[in-house]
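Technical note accompanying the year-one report. For the benefit of new consortium partners, we illustrate the data format agreed upon in the data management plan: each record pairs a sequence with a structure-token string. No post-processing was applied to the example shown here.
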Amino acid sequence: MNLRVQLTFWLGALVVLLLFLWVFSGILLPFIMGMALAYLLDPLADRLESAGMNRFWATITIVILSIMVFTLVALVVIPLLVSQLTGFLEDLPSYAAQLQDLWNRFLSTELGRYFGQQQESFSVDRWVSQGAAWVAGLLGSVWAGGRALINAVGLVVVTPVVAFYLLYDWDRMLDRLDALLPRDHADTIRQLGRDMDAAIAGFIRGQGALCLILGLFYAISLTVVGLNFGFLIGSVAGLISFIPYVGSIVGFVLSVGVALVQFWPDWIWVLAVAGIFAVGQFIEGNLLQPRLVGSSIGVHPVWLMFALFAFGSLFGFVGVLIAVPVTAAIGVLVRFAVARYRQSGLYLERTGTPPDRMQS
């Protein structure tokens, strides 16, 4: 009966939370962003506190510095991105026509004759129009799902305020939550909380650093080789690198497509653009991913992609923001449940023989 009551309580709490996210998803963006900033900056505030600074002044210092850095980046980077995005959208039809012409030329060669049967079914114009429609739909869903974006002033003002108050009261909030834990299970819940914190913090901080490094590498490298819209394509590729494989594939396809139109028939520069993404993938897979992220989230990339699309479909842009931490928390709970199952009578023989003895 006690187990039934607990299951009913937690399932009810989960339903209430999902309903809350669904009903208020349109106004939650600045609060989610403020909470994320407070969570990410709390270790820095703790270090300043341990160095002798008052928590209030540590919070003020961190928030002001964060606003200054964000403002500087926004003033320098955003105008460049907007300018390149406008130019890219204007030139997209001509790029599609030139790529179609290059494809038709390829089909007239000996090698292209093997692909001749696909000439009627393949059309760059069609693929570009479908891709543009998909991007427009995605941007529309992000805009509709995050209605706080409509009021940009509200987003800019509310997020720092929320971040300040949450960062200032972070430790006290944790103490109050700890005081509400059921005493018989407090140690288990605390351990689960520590595991979730390690998974979420490791992934978000590590993946955030990875996306920043890759974005800078792609943007600077593509700009150096002279690729049109290189800074935009590289930044987008780095930004969406938190979705496994998607960032590199999108960036590679866009950059190589632009390079074919811009540099044809000079294959050296086309190969140079492709080589940038090959080097980026090598750096990500062999250096950045193991050191910065590792296996901190403990969730397979396929499940992570499913969570991003599922939460994005249900809750819009807010869902995309909370997909990774929720997936990391679910992963911790699933591993805990599996461990308990392997220790229970459902898994063991009726005699209660431990698993290692059974295998021997």
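Partners are asked to follow this layout when depositing records. The CA atoms of residues 264 and 270 lie 8 Å apart.
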